[in-house]
Amino acid sequence: MTINSIQEANAALLPYVPLVAQLTGKDTTLERIKPLMELLGNPQDRLKVIHIAGTSGKTSTAYYMAAMLAVDNKVGLTVSPHVDSVAERVQVNGRPLDDASFCSELGEFLDIIAQAKQQPSYFELLYAFAIWVFAKQQVDYAVVETGVGGLYDATNVVTRRDKVCVITDIGFDHTHLLGKNLTDITSQKAGIIHDGNAVFTYQQSQEIMSVIQQAADKHNAQLHVISDESELAALSDSQGMPKYQRHNWLLAKQVYDYLCARDSLRHLTSEVLQETQQLQVPARMDAKQINGKTIVMDGAHNFQKMTAFVDSFRQLHPDIKPAVMLALKDDKEYQSLIPIIAPLASEIIVTTFNATQDLPIKSMDPEVLAQTFRDGGASNVLAIADQDSAVKYLLKSPSKVCIITGSFYLLSQVRNNEALR
Length: 421
Hints:
Elements: H1 6-13, H2 18-23, H3 33-39, E1 49-53, H4 58-69, E2 75-78, E3 91-92, E4 95-96, H5 99-113, H6 122-136, E5 141-145, E6 164-167, H7 175-178, H8 182-189, E7 198-202, H9 206-218, E8 222-226, H10 229-234, H11 243-263, H12 270-277, E9 286-290, E10 293-298, H13 303-316, E11 323-327, H14 338-341, E12 347-350, H15 366-375, E13 381-383, H16 387-395, E14 401-406, H17 408-414
Parallel strand pairs: 1-5, 1-6, 2-5, 6-7, 7-8, 10-14, 11-12, 11-14, 12-13
Antiparallel strand pairs: 2-3, 3-4, 9-10
Helix pairs in contact: 4-11, 8-9
């Protein structure tokens, strides 16, 4: 198949999008991805993988991990969802494949998987594609972020003993898929642990830690629990980072130190480490200046992420009450976000992300979300369904600092809004 542009690539991927809604939750197993990887020659078995699961911080930790490793190695990185371009899901040494390479490789890949007896979902396809590209390019390491959960996530076909598992902070999200309590959710996240793996996590609640410890014991895995973040922070010059990003960076640094000893990697100088701290992770505490305003964009779409974001925002802007614009997916457990956002904001603009042919996901009714804010005590709340109108209203706000948050689908769209360029 010949693909000449990212637009043509998105069109070629379009038939796989509906399978996400059809299969997720009803047939969440590894039984589709395993035959697909076998068809590709099991490229995952040829890679050293750092596998990252958790509720909050996965993407940022993955970006920091890849940046550290890429100082002296060839490193692949695959994350989801993408923010600006689907090419972000296949990165080598900190850069998405250029459009020409992405399209050429995707065309070849789609010809191969056309032979598969069962077609993959959109996420499964792009994960398999990333791993296939990384193996072709003979990367030294592949940093892999899970999609949802871990145990039955497509990424969990990686079972090598030298895999390093990273489990970030765990909380409530995707409860309709992962379980209604932390024990069930953690069991899914810890499902990425296989025989002989090294496992890294921060000290979390006893309920969470007991499940992770049991999974590690079952697989004779080495569990490394990071218990004193303040001591770690004192060893670095990361104090200028937003609080939650420092948390993620320090976790990645501990994993790098382990790999440094295990694989005889070069110790990174303080100057190089500071460079990795400056990395801007897309749509995470992502700030830009527009007409004298600071616009902070962050995909905080659940209680844990929003709590961490607001805590970090207040650290950076302690005396500011920003205008906040947000949209959420229709299936989000949104009530828990109200008491976090309402006290922070000078005004709240509730909007939507735009439905497209390749986005079979609905945004929450802005009127319903706005009324929930009002019922929760927020007074200055406005529902503007049209996203462009909502952006223009936000930019006219008297607030000098504004926040755009919620669904990554919203962030992906507004980052390309002409008014915010």
